[in-house]
Amino acid sequence: MENNYTDNNSSANNRIKNFFTIAISFLVGMTVALYFVPGRQSGLSKMQSNKLDEVVKYINSYYVDTVNTDQLFETAINSMLQELDPHSTYANATENKAMMESLEGAFEGVGIQFSIMNDTIMVISTVSGGPSEKQGIRAGDRIVTVDGKNVAGIGIQNDEVMKMLRGKKKTNVTIGIMRQGYPQITDYTVTRDVIPTYTLDIAYMVDPQTGYIKINQFGATTAREFSDAIEQLKKKGMSKMILDLRSNSGGFLDAAIQICDEFLAKGEMIVYTEGLHVPTDKIYATRYGNFEKGDVIVLIDDFSASASEIVAGAIQDNDRGIVVGRRSFGKGLVQRQIDLTDKSSIRLTVARYHTPSGRCIQREYGKGTEAYYEDFIDRYYRGEMSHSDSIKFDENQKFKTKNGRTVYGGGGIMPDYFIPLDDDSTLNAYYQVLNSSAIIQFAFNYATDNKEKVLKQYPTAASYVKGMSVSNDLLKQLLNFYTQKTGLKVKDLNNDSIKELKVWLKALIGRDIYKEEAFYPVINSSDKTFLKAMELTKER
């Protein structure tokens, strides 16, 4: 995503537009799968079914142009579901497969992370032990052909690349690579295999007592990844935990329940669900968790939704820990996935979930889907992302936590400690560069060209985080690269923007060389929400 800033006044507006774009992308992709049931007999009466068939027959017989009947039916299904609520959705067979691969924790392919830069497919990293790494493909390589077909300089898109590289296990794909220092294309024949995906980004010790764990979504492997991370960090001395659920849009409800069970004592309520056609289901902690003792701080933001809100709400309502950040999205509808005969599926809302105190955190959606999403975006204009007192609570939805604190329902989880959205007008230069692709491309190029040198100086991620600093000369190179790429000059460059840009450049270079082990510790060093959480761990 690239946004270019031209003056002080447009900077603020562009930041808002950038926020909207992120918000819309986030909302489109958000879902919670509770469980699966086979398709059932249609609820249509014979007259309704005949009526639908009759309309399609007349369209096919008399419409002025050729019609894709399958697409018509998919459009009709989508329209019906959209009339119900914002989160009942339809996925065709391809979309359904891609979503389930993401949540189930594995897909079949070649095992690379790529990015399209300057109309060229760049290998960002290879999965450790995966098919591409075994064949010798490495970060920094440029993919120019796939099975003999040119893929460079033709405007190829991400989904097209994935279609080419993904495929059934044990099938082959030949990837043509251009590598710096080698003038000719080298072909690598890669045998596709099962590639694991992970929902836990990182787990590390911030200080001798405090562990930090970030979960990006709730999938089939999340509970196991989380349990393993707790065990590893406890061996390193963790007695306090920061659990980062920011920008986590949800996933499997069962994964969220298992995460809560790690913190809560047996018999404490985690969540309950209610719906017209399903029985009320109350879910309690059932076993000894790995972290029932010790301070817990949960980080959330406007994009924390669904399963993330279950975890934050359960910890808050049971007074097991505190929540820091901004009001969460407010998705309290439970979807049941129903697989259809053609391998497509619908995710139908069957219940609402409630936190232990009785809160339903689902926002109002009775005015339609468009108004529902506009309300989320309007939070920015109402000022509630900058000032907690701008949030309007329904006085009829007051609830009490286990220890008697007042919490509110009707629209997301409100944190115990509010951290405003970064929207500092003194950081215009920082936003200008950060919200373009230039900084990512510059960091990637630098990491590719200097990897051996950096690794020699900093053999581990920890030594890089502790010792590496971005020089003024390197920052100048970035700013020149930005101007060359965008045709714009960086304006209002002050010490605060310089400081933040150096942090991000260090983090991005670190990610390209050491992966997340260098990225998050660097980014967190200047993150206001994280720093507030660290301040609170020292007070508790």
The overall average pLDDT, rounded, is: 85
Gap between N and C termini, in Å?
40 Å
Largest sheet: 6 strands, mixed
What is the total tally of β strands?
A: 22
Unreliable spans:
1-42
Briefly note the structural class of the backbone.
Answer: alpha+beta
Which of globular, elongated, flat, extended, rod-shaped describes the shape? globular
Helical region count? 17
- Give the amount of beta strand, in percent: 15-25%
Percent of residues in helices:
40-55%
The Rg value, from CA coordinates, equals 25 Å
Write up this protein.
With 540 residues, the protein is of the alpha+beta class. It is 41% helix and 21% strand. It is built from 17 helices and 22 strands. The chain has helices spanning 8-28, 46-62, 69-84, 93-104, 131-135, 158-165, 222-235, 253-263, 307-317, 369-382, 428-434, 438-457, 461-467, 472-486, 495-514, 516-524, 528-539; strands at residues 33-38, 89-91, 106-109, 112-117, 120-126, 142-146, 149-150, 172-178, 186-191, 193-196, 200-205, 210-215, 240-244, 269-274, 281-284, 295-300, 322-325, 333-339, 345-354, 398-400, 406-408, 417-418. Strands 1, 2, 14, 15, 18 and 19 form a six-stranded mixed beta sheet that branches. Strands 4, 5, 6, 7, 8 and 9 form a six-stranded antiparallel beta sheet that branches. A six-stranded mixed beta sheet has the order 11-12-13-16-17-22, sandwiched between helices. β4 and β5 form a beta hairpin. α1 runs antiparallel to α10 (369-382), α11 runs parallel beside α15 and α13 packs parallel to α16.
